[in-house]
Amino acid sequence: MGSRGTPMLDQLGQPFPPVDLRTLSGTATLGLTQRPESVRRARDFTRNTLQGWRLPQHFDAVGLVVSELVTNALRHGLGRPAVPAQSHAEPVAPISVARPLVELELMRCSGRVICAVQDPSGALPRSSSQMDGAAESGRGLHLVECFSDGWGWRMLTGGRGKVVWAAFQTS
Questions:
Q1: Cα–Cα distance between 52 and 42 in angstroms, integer?
Q2: Is the pLDDT reported for residue 78 higher than 90?
Q3: Are 44 and 106 in contact (CB under 8 A)?
Q4: CA 113 to CA 149: how far, in whole Å?
């Protein structure tokens, strides 16, 4: 958790989504690992950040979108965690990852909040129009599209993954 500049946007080489850095009034960052509680941590972090920015009325939409983007990053950006083969031996404790694999950044600037989720995958996000309508999963980006004022993605330089972002009007 932090309040540094705009590390994800800086890595993109240009402000994307379009952000006038002169109007940036707050950032908050949370690193996440591939654990079941990570999506809940991201939602709680978002709620607390929006309350601190005196924007709690935006939590329903922003929290839903953060949940979808983080879930997608953990599920598709990292792939499925390795599951040890079942045996009659004692259960193996999950391997703890020291450094975050996915990063959530919330940014507040003139009249909007932007959430950005970075993951190490080079796989492109698949919009709802690319998904099978009968599929039980894959509707997350459709929700992002419905609840945000705009969203997009951008590959990071040097093949270091991607950032998926969503913007919300606050004024």
A1: 15
A2: no
A3: no
A4: 10
pLDDT tens per residue across span 101-139: 899 999 998 899 999 999 998 888 865 444 444 444 457
Spatial separation of the C-alpha atoms in residues 51 and 45, rounded to whole Å: 10
Ordered by start, the domain boundaries in the chain are 38-79+97-171
* Of 11-25, 29-43, 71-85, 92-106, highest mean pLDDT: 29-43
Site of tokens 């990053």 = 73
23: helix, coil or strand? helix
Q: Return the structure tokens found at 133.
A: 């309508």
Domain made up of 38-79+97-171: CATH architecture: 2-Layer Sandwich (3.30)
State phi, psi for 108 to the nearest 5 degrees.
Answer: -115, 125
Write down the number of H helices and E strands in the chain.
Answer: 4, 5
Measure Cα distances from 8 to 28, 32, 130 in Å: 11, 15, 26
Model confidence over 132-147: pLDDT tens digits? 444 444 578 889 999 9
pTM for this one?
0.74
Q: Are 129 and 113 in contact (CB under 8 A)?
A: no
- Alpha helices (H) along the chain: 7-11, 38-52, 59-72, 140-147
**What residue ranges in 68-161 does DSSP mark as E strands?**
102-109, 112-119, 150-155
